[in-house]
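Table S2 (text version). Query chain:
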Amino acid sequence: MATQFATMASTGRTETVTTVTGGGGVRLHVVEAGNPRGRPIVFIHGFSQSWLAWSRQMTSDLGSDYRLVAMDLRGHGLSEKPAEVEAYSDSKLWADDVDAVIRGLNLDRPALCGWSYGSLAILDYVRHYGEASLGGIVVVDGLTRLGSNEAMAVISPEVRSLVPGFFASDAQDSVGSLESLVRLCFAREPAADELYMMLGYNVSVPPGVRQALFSRAFDNDDVMASIRKPVLILHGAEDAVVDPGVVEQHKAAMPHAQVQLMQHDGHAPFWDDAPAFNQRLRAFCQSL
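Corresponding structure-token output:
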């Protein structure tokens, strides 16, 4: 596995940009910030997003104590974007990607923090690699199932109505659906420059990749039932993308998990109220 390093300045902090070779040889873009001697936290973004979704964590005071790592999932951001559906359908490839980041950066017992679709990548990892190398797991407004009526039932009708546009090859249809999705993620709309930055990295994901992600089908209840490491479930109480009621399903599968609803926050509580989110994440990681 080849890893290349470069440094860049961003918002007054030094970040390390790394290329890691993941499952099937796919090149993954990874950004690192914070305390290189601190406990690692690996941030895994959601559907059609990028590592930039975690900007309010990567540039926060979490960096004083923690080694902060944010990856672009395959097909997203600056990671490689294979055109073949098979590059996204095999859960082992997603597991290999997470493992490649952990091993490639020599991360010691990291906490994996997955948002929305990113939670699926964590469960892919646990399915194929187990949990022994992890310190803990954070599920943020997470999904754990795909490809069934039960899985779709937790996704809001507003988002389901946008799905055809996610796969559209017509730019206007695609951009319109993605802009609506971005706006649905927040209880408090981001500033215009933030909103269009988010739209930009959403649009950079090819429609075929988005369709391949939605084409996966599985139920992870068996994996969640096997988890014994500490788990924190954070969910925005005003989530307009994934029904907050899904937390009951997660808790039933992982009875030992801590559950914290973030009042007045939407699908992206780490952005809606970054200070409160960061405080809760810090407290969890301190307990590991």
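Notes on Table S2: The longest helix spans residues 91-104. The first strand starts at residue 4 and ends at 10.
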